């Protein structure tokens, strides 16, 4: 069932780096709709060892896939996990 859900949402197609960035953002988001910063995601234990260029590529990819969204009211570096994926 979990694999089916991953497939429906598109998580099964993520690279390991994209998955780590997504999981770090999800872990940091706390409650539904909580904004996380790029710096917070970058410093998370899952992502701290990722090369900077790889991290930023993964972040851009997650944004383009719609798994992360830019937070309203901020020019950049502030993100939300997609509502239907953030439900803690």
What does this protein structure show overall?
Strands 1-3-2 form a 3-stranded antiparallel sheet. The longest helix is centred in the first third of the chain and has 14 residues, at 16-29. The protein has helices spanning 2-9, 16-29, 38-43, 52-65, 83-86, and strands at residues 36-37, 68-70, 78-81. It has a single domain, classed as Winged helix-like DNA-binding domain superfamily/Winged helix DNA-binding domain (Arc Repressor Mutant, subunit A, Orthogonal Bundle), CATH 1.10.10. By secondary structure, the chain is mainly α.
Task: Briefly summarize what is shown.
Helices cover 52% and strands 10% of the residues. With 88 residues, it is mainly alpha-helical.
Question: What separation lies between the terminal Cα atoms?
Answer: 18 Å
CATH class: Mainly Alpha
Helix/strand order? HHEHHEEH
Helix count, per DSSP? 5
Produce the secondary structure layout.
Elements: H1 2-9, H2 16-29, E1 36-37, H3 38-43, H4 52-65, E2 68-70, E3 78-81, H5 83-86
Antiparallel strand pairs: 1-3, 2-3
Helix pairs in contact: 2-4
Structure keywords:
mainly alpha, Arc Repressor Mutant, subunit A, 10% strand, 52% helix, single chain, 88 residues
């Amino acid at each position: 069932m979990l694999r089916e859900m991953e497939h429906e949402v598109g998580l099964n197609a993520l690279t390991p780096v994209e998955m780590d960035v997504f999981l770090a953002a999800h872990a940091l988001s706390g409650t539904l709709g909580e904004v996380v910063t790029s710096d917070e995601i970058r410093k998370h234990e899952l992502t701290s060892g990722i090369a900077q260029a790889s991290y930023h590529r993964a972040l851009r990819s997650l944004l383009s896939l719609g798994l992360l969204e830019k937070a309203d009211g901020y020019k950049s570096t502030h993100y939300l996990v997609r509502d239907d994926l953030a439900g803690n």
